[in-house]
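The instructor's notes for this session suggest beginning with a concrete chain rather than abstract definitions. Hand out the sequence below and ask the class to guess, before any prediction is shown, which regions might be ordered.
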Amino acid sequence: MDLDFTFPLLSRLFVDLQFQRALWNASSFVVSPSATKLPGILAESRSEDPRVRRIAVQGIGDGLNRVARADGVEALVCWSAVVGAMFDPAPSVVTLSLDLIAKEAHVPDELAKVVSDRLNLLFRQAGRDVRVTVARACRRLSERAEGWPEILDILENAQRDRSWLVRDAAVVQREPPGRPT
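After discussion, reveal the predicted structure:
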């Protein structure tokens, strides 16, 4: 048996099994979010594999609507995982967390300062794709009147960004006027 071939094959198999387990845990959490399923999916949100982290964060985000209704510790833990994904080294995980934050109804007050500070830092230091997502998230947060002055500052800077994609994402979409009756 050729060991040079066997070890990469086994490590690939392990990664695939970890990926499949993450898919299973995320889908079961979305279907029925509960405190017993939370530790597994939280651990996967910190996996070495960015694909696994992305799936776990997506699962937490999708289950967040149901967990947030309970308005307890589980909701805050889920929100903390989504906000923690803003600090991920993989841009795809960061943009996913930003989309989830922008999509949800209300960021908990306990995490609002962390979110606004991280949005500001990401906008100043990240690449174009992340800046586009930051601008889009800030636009959505400003439309819901979250009351964060930092969001308006980021939007103002995004409207003067060097990339037209960032500038376009920062523009507040207005509904076209209706036909006169």
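Then share the key points. The first helix runs from residue 3 to 31. The two ends are 81 Å apart (CA to CA).
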